[in-house]
Specification:
Aminopeptidase; four-stranded antiparallel β-sheet; binds zinc ion; 2 domains; alpha/beta; 13-stranded mixed β-sheet
Amino acid sequence: MNLSLQTVPRPFADAAQLIDRAAPGALTHSTLQVGTMASGQPVALPLLVAKGRADGPVLWLNGAVHGDEINGILAISDFMAGLDCADLAGTVVATPVSNPTALDARRKRVPQDEQDLDQSFPGSDAGMLSQLLAHAVFDGIRHCADVVVNFHTMNPLFSSRPYAVYKDAGDGAPGEDDILSAIARFSPFVACRMSVASAAELPGNNAGALDYQCLKLGKLAFMIELGAGSRQQPDCIRAGIDGLTGLAAHLRMFPDPVPGPGPVCRVTRRTHVFSRHGGFFRQQAAAGTTLPAGQPLGHVQDVAGRVVETVSFEQDVQVIGIRNDPVVHSGDRVGFVGLEWDEWHDR
Ligand SMILES: [Zn+2]
């Protein structure tokens, strides 16, 4: 009898195998299994493959990395369903629900371990469930993808117009002009250039973001933020579909040529805005607008209607997001603004 230590064989097909098996000229809906629950139910996520008959790039679309961010799922679904695979050059791969247990639980984070999946990349094949999920997606991207779009939304308490975020990943990563030329197809309100080390960002492992880890591998990647979480917003979904259509054309995956994109408002410094006082935040500005210096973003008032705090800025700001839920405690976020920006033009 052989008593040597048994290793656990890899029991499920990985993403690269599923993509390889997909038939050319068709849309294939398969399932990427990651593990099992105690009940025996699979932990799995949907994998859509639209494979063209002609050679071309692999565009990878990732949705619901935060389980309560819905607009991106629907934009990906509608875009994939509308593709003419017979005329496609290259392959579009989609993981529209990359955080399946969080989606099913109507939550942002992975419920089983309370981790933020978009702070868990590249993941691990021998870790917590969030790491297993991250690894399953990232392993496929590592082997197959050329360009990656990761869809987010703001949280359900905020309003925003669609905007983009891209990271500064240093040497070896695709250049900023190439990233912005792809982002421009989405006509975002702003495109924020973000440093994962910036103290102006919320605390957490920002270097564990999918797009950042893709850039580190030399793959062109960015985030599109489509409105607010926990709802469907038809204008945001439409913006996502139109952006993906323009991006695929830009990547020469469609037969018809496309015109160059319009300019992009590039934000190079941004900040979250917090209330100092508890009370009720009353909006005085709108998302997707430029707020002049000295004008209020909003007031915090107490239950007697007395203004206890006015939120304003000494300079003009771009209002990327503004809080809808009026109930605020000290330290709650009430806004998200761009502080420095310029206009980028495709060359
Ligand atoms: Zn998100």
